[in-house]
């Protein structure tokens, strides 16, 4: 059994069932249409979530374009930088914090809160 909470996952057709062969639904990492579009445009290349949703090597597809999760690691909100915010499609860390506060009811930024980085790269497609 895997140590992540991926939803709607399926094994790839190669069939050995290893985590690297895991295909996930793109909404697992990128829940909004805006984020998926930004990934297609290269504006979003990573996402931080409250827990691990995919292993390194997992893939997902958006409109015929395949992406691979190339890095997964635990961090805290206090470790995030403007560069992280920009990789998530926002101008800077202050804008990222505001986005999280708008997107999540009862969210309060705490530098010590644990989050999980999921970085991904385009592999193929349109």
How does this model look, in words?
There is one protein chain. The protein is of the alpha+beta class. It has a domain at 10-76 and 112-124. Helix content is 23%, strand content 28%. It is built from four helices and six strands; from the N terminus they run ββααβββααβ. A four-stranded antiparallel beta sheet has the order 3-6-5-4. A two-stranded antiparallel sheet has the order 1-2. The longest helix has 11 residues, at 93-103. Mean pLDDT is 87; it is low at 1-17.
Attribute tags:
126 residues, alpha+beta, four-stranded antiparallel beta sheet, two-stranded antiparallel ribbon, 4 helices, 23% helix, globular, disordered N terminus
Write the layout of secondary structure elements.
Layout: E1 10-11, E2 22-23, H1 26-29, H2 33-40, E3 46-49, E4 59-62, E5 65-76, H3 82-87, H4 93-103, E6 114-124
Antiparallel strand pairs: 1-2, 3-6, 4-5, 5-6
Element order: H for helix, E for strand: EEHHEEEHHE
- Which sequence of strands runs across the widest sheet? 3-6-5-4
Number of helices: 4
Low-confidence stretches: 1-17
How much beta, percentage-wise?
Answer: 25-35%
How does the overall form come out from the CA principal axes? globular
Question: What is the residue-averaged pLDDT?
Answer: 87
User: Termini distance?
Assistant: 34 Å
Largest sheet: 4 strands, antiparallel
The radius of gyration computed from the alpha-carbon positions, rounded to a whole number of angstroms, is: 14 Å
Q: Structural class from helices and strands?
A: alpha+beta
Query: Percent helix among the residues?
Result: 10-25%
Number of strands: 6
